[in-house]
Structures are given as structure tokens and as C-alpha cells.
Amino acid sequence: MPSTTRASRLFNLVDQREYALCQAINRSLRFRPVHGYFQLVSRLGDGWLWYALILAMPLLRPADGLALALLMVFTGLTCTITYKVLKRWLIRERPFISFPSINCGTPPLDRYSFPSGHTLHAVCFTTILALTAPEVFWPILPFTLSVAASRVILGLHYPSDVAAGAVIGGCIGALAVFVS
To answer: Is the pTM of this model over 0.85?
Structure first.
């Protein structure tokens, strides 16, 4: 049996179990400030905040900022390849596609749900900062948590997509720091 069939069966089971939680979290979109905040966070999490941070690292940390910026670029590319391969291989539909009662709060960047690429990148970069630049890590942490939350609130991901993205991103970020 092909792995995509096994993955599809597993995701169908998990989707049913996560549906009620997704729907409950997604209801917060009814509140304009919540919707607006998480749309903004999602948009910044598309890469814009990370690009700005990478460009700012040499100014924020003159001694090692350029090396950290290059490490973030390398790991960002690794994260992109990783999540794109996983999404194409595992093929999990997004919650708003599988369950019409879940509203899509902002257009997705790609078709599939597992894992959350936004969360994967955010946790990867935040892990790098936690291990190398704690003075930058602490101000970025609330943004990273907001990015992870935005994915479920906006109806784009299941909680398990976000959890998987966080684990994968954390592992890539830690590994990148320890091998550099």
C-alpha cells in the first residue's frame, strides 16, 4: 500500500478528531480585531519579518550578526525544501477545504496543510535565536507564538500541522546551530 494512502487514512482519522477544536478556535474570526491581528501576523510570517530580521542581524550583533544571518538564510532554505516535500508527499487538505463550516481567514500560500510551513520557519528561526542571541529571541518569541496560533485561528491548519511544524523547525534550527 503506498505511503500516501496510509497517510491519507491517518489524516482522515485525525482530521475528524481535530475538527471540533479547529471549529471552536476558528470562531474567534468573528471578532474584527482578532481577525485583523492574525491576518497581519500571518502576512508578516509569510517571510517579511524574517527577511527584515535577517538583514538587521549584522546591525543588531556586529560581532557575529553576519554569520547568524547566513545561518538563518541557509536554514530558511532547508525549511522551505523540507515542508514543500512533506506537503507534496503526505497530501493533507486544509481544514477549511475538508470542513466548510471552518472559515478561511486569509488565502493560503499553497494547497496542502501538513506541516505548517509558517510555524516551521518561525520556530526554526526562533530556536536559532534562543541558542545564539537571547536578547533578540525574547522580543521575537511572542511573534512566533502568534504565527503558530494564526494558522489554526485562520482555518489554514489543524493543531497537529502546527505541532509538527514546530517540532521539525525546532530540530532544524537546533541542528543548524550545533553543526555550525
So the answer is: yes
